Amino acid sequence: MTEQLRPDGSLRHLLTLEGLTKPQVERLLERAQGMVRPLGARPAMSQALAGSTVANLFMEPSTRTRVSFELAAKRLGAHVVNLELQLSSRVKGESMLDTVYTLQSLHVDALVIRDAEAGVPQLVAANVAPHVSVLSAGEAHVSHPTQGLLDALTILQRKQRFDGLAVAIVGDIRHSRVARSAWHALHILGVTDLRVVAPAALMPEAREFPGVTRCTDLSAGIEGADVVMVLRIQKERMGQADLPDNARYFTAWGLTHERLKAARPDAIVMHPQPMNRGIEIAADVADGAQSVIRDQVRNGVAVRMAVLAQVLDARGETP
Ligand code: NCD
């Protein structure tokens, strides 16, 4: 795996949360918390990254992650360029690395990459010049490190601790990079009661989530949980034959108010979005008092500011 740290131990790339230490993750969360502002207030802004350029390369659709990386970079004073699949030369057959070398020649300092193919962020990180940082914005089904951090931050804000929490991740875990990065983050931060709750067909292989409780019944899986994280059915990663029927899925697996009663009364409900209302989650639960889904979105900008500041400040350059 590509080394994410510089020789002095500072974070250079963020490709996965796997292998980061608890103090490294806590430092990022603390920095992110410092960037959170109440809704309606002006967002946190600085010129910390003035003179730096961040390129967003999104080879898969994205709303929240792309916009929040862009806002995060701009709110730290960086320049931002956005490349989308349809607009980039990749459709003309230019390889990903040639696109990256072009951006590097244009003085881009950080590349934010989302790709449907596993291994692309690592490949890019292994080939960029030493001053360039690579941040994964979602790698196939493999990982989504900034999502893992924003999920952890959202839990910390509501529960003030990780120790002793019961966290149930529910739904299409097999295809979910969000679940994998949430597991990495929460495992590093010391959550010991972590459950993956899914129908057998959407359950990941046991070796991928070592140490978690696996459960194929929704009510039993969320019983007494402090956190219920619901995931989207990732139809784009399934063969036609594996597609569940929407109505049948909702009947068996949709998180409704009635079903949520199995969790703790003060349980929070999370979802990374995009949501399929009426399939994996009832609309009134998504919009209800226990939902922290909009906090997750707000925290996404703060986390991406913290990560950008962490990787770009640490270069120790003066512009
Ligand atoms: C997710 C993604 O793309 O991995 N969305 C996000 O980044 N918030 C989750 C999903 O697509 O279901």
Task: State the end-to-end CA separation.
Answer: 31 Å
Counting helices, strands and paired strands, the structural category is: alpha/beta
Would you state the CATH class of the largest domain?
Alpha Beta
Q: Stretches where pLDDT falls below 50 for ≥5 residues? A: none
Q: In DSSP terms, counting alpha (H) and pi (I) runs of 4 or more, how many helices?
A: 11
Total tally of structural domains: 2
Specify the overall morphology: globular
Strand content: 5-15%
Mean pLDDT, nearest integer?
Answer: 93
CATH homologous superfamily annotation of the largest domain: Aspartate/ornithine carbamoyltransferase
Largest sheet: 5 strands, parallel
Main sheet strand line-up: 7-6-5-8-9
CATH architecture of the largest domain: 3-Layer(aba) Sandwich
Ligands, deduplicated:
N-carbamoyl-L-aspartate
At the third CATH level, what is the topology name of the largest domain?
A: Rossmann fold
Q: How large, in whole angstroms, is the Cα Rg?
A: 19 Å
Percent helix range:
25-40%
